[in-house]
Amino acid sequence: MVQTIGNPISWGLKQLRAAGHDIGDVTRRIGGTGDMPRVRTLTYADLREALRLGVQDFGALRTDVIAAALLYPIAGAVLVWAAWNGALLPLIFPIASGFALVGPAAAIGFYEMSRRREAGQKTNWLDGFRVLASPAFGVVFAGAMMLAAVFFCWLLTAYFIFLATMGPEIPASAMDFLREVLTTPAGWAMMAIGIPAGAVFAAVVLSSAVVSFPLLLDRDVGIPAAIVTSLRVTRAAPGPVLAWGAIVAAFLALGTIPLFLGLAIALPVLGHATWHLYRKAVRPA
């Protein structure tokens, strides 16, 4: 049958209908249609097992995963370069530490790779990008934007803390800034306020996102149910969840040295391990 190009009006209406259907599907998935997941009580042994399985996944996909993960160190280095060479020098540490806030979303490709490997499917680094074509991508992207908003709020908070304690004058160099932070009362005050404030942001993200993104990828439950499930996992086992947060923070802190290159290992291992932690924390549908 000969195909012809329709007139612009009919073609435009067809595209609008398709876009409306996609937007409606994303909106529906944000609300979710599945049942509320049931949770298990995590143990410290579960954390060790999740890390062991995460390292196994990383080892099985080692070359491919590193190639994909190099995208994150490059992005981090660009952010720090922008702060270093501008008037945002006081935000270098908040930017680096803020990786923990967006990490649950940044690792979504690694969840997909672990999910496929767990299912016995042939997997390579390109499978991490299959999320872009997944029905869950819209709701995952919405969740990622929520974490991005939290990250932005953290940067604003950190900058206002700097202005209230050490500002408004920006130090001439990174060494001058570091010296003022470590040797002056204003620097001590900034740390005394900023570190607890950062811990609050980290605790909010940890408790609400410890299993949210693997759950959104795996099941049609919606963002509210995913957040509630993470909070229930945290309430059932606050000690192990807090320990998991400390493990994530330690991995990411080491990963930022030097110049974020360590994230090429830290992010994949944590991403794969988080998938397995989700499997241990949430009962199957």
From TrEMBL:
Ranges annotated as spanning the membrane: 65-84, 90-111, 132-165, 185-211, 241-270
Keywords: Membrane, Transmembrane, Transmembrane helix
Record keyword Transmembrane present: yes
Residue runs in coiled coils: none
Stated name of the protein: DUF2189 domain-containing protein
Keyword Oxidoreductase belongs to the record: no
Pfam families for this protein: DUF2189
